[in-house]
Amino acid sequence: MTIDVRTRHAVHYSQSERMTSAELRENFVIEDLFVAGTLQAVYTHYDRMLVAGVTPTQTSLGIGSELAKLVGADYLLERRELGLINIGGSGRVIADGRAYALQPMDGFYLGMGTKEILFESDNPAAPAKFYINSAPAHATFPSRIISSADAIENNLGDSATSNKRKLYQYLHPKVLPTCQLLMGLTRLETGSVWNTMPAHLHDRRMEAYLYFEIPENAFVVHLMGRPAVTNHLIIRNEQAVLSPPWSIHCGAGTGAYAFIWSMAGDNQSFTDMDMVDMKSLK
Prior knowledge:
The protein contains three helices and 24 strands. The strands form five sheets. Strands 1-3-4-11-6-9-12 form a seven-stranded mixed beta sheet. By secondary structure, the chain is mainly beta. 6% of the residues lie in helices and 45% in strands. This is 4-deoxy-L-threo-5-hexosulose-uronate ketol-isomerase. Its EC number is 5.3.1.17. One of its GO terms (molecular function) is zinc ion binding. It catalyses: 5-dehydro-4-deoxy-D-glucuronate = 3-deoxy-D-glycero-2,5-hexodiulosonate.
């Protein structure tokens, strides 16, 4: 079993505004979360969010001592919670001996105190791809599957502005209790390309985006930075972007796509956004 663990330190906006494209990617883009037979993890200094991708094939993959050591605990979820969405084939999570079967686009929440976590795929040729976010927790809430049918569906945008999309809230106070994690999935409709436009900020929370369902020769132009000093990142299929609290996070693709958004920070108010006037973007 292969586990690759990396750390991303926090960056001040004044530093990012002097970075080259390569330096921006090094600090804010995660390019290789899903590698067959491995667990890929990035520990960030933005609200201590852990971002990981697990792609089990022939054998189980487990969260071992490497991640526990990273967070300074006896086991990863000693003082943390974990959320995930499966963007691959069917599989299962085995948590402290109990198996949870997950179909494509199912979500899952694991509460603080879960010690042993294993991941498996039903078909190694079409493996599950578990996209994971973990953040510090202060209380234990029940672990449970959140199917795509359980998620709250929101219809947003308009075809006239090329941003018609469906937003599904998986980890949300109206669905289940969590300490601070919010997590959901947005899928753009055919003919629409813009996500999260008009743009916004929320200085009280960080955010991470995982873009997927992007064809091989397509990409998304992800916009980041302060509203008046924006940068862009070219994002390919199944790559993630870390969005600091000082940064906008929106983008446009060469066609329709999907992305998973997740947040951690001071509150769980999804509508706590500081909207950015379109005229102020530069």
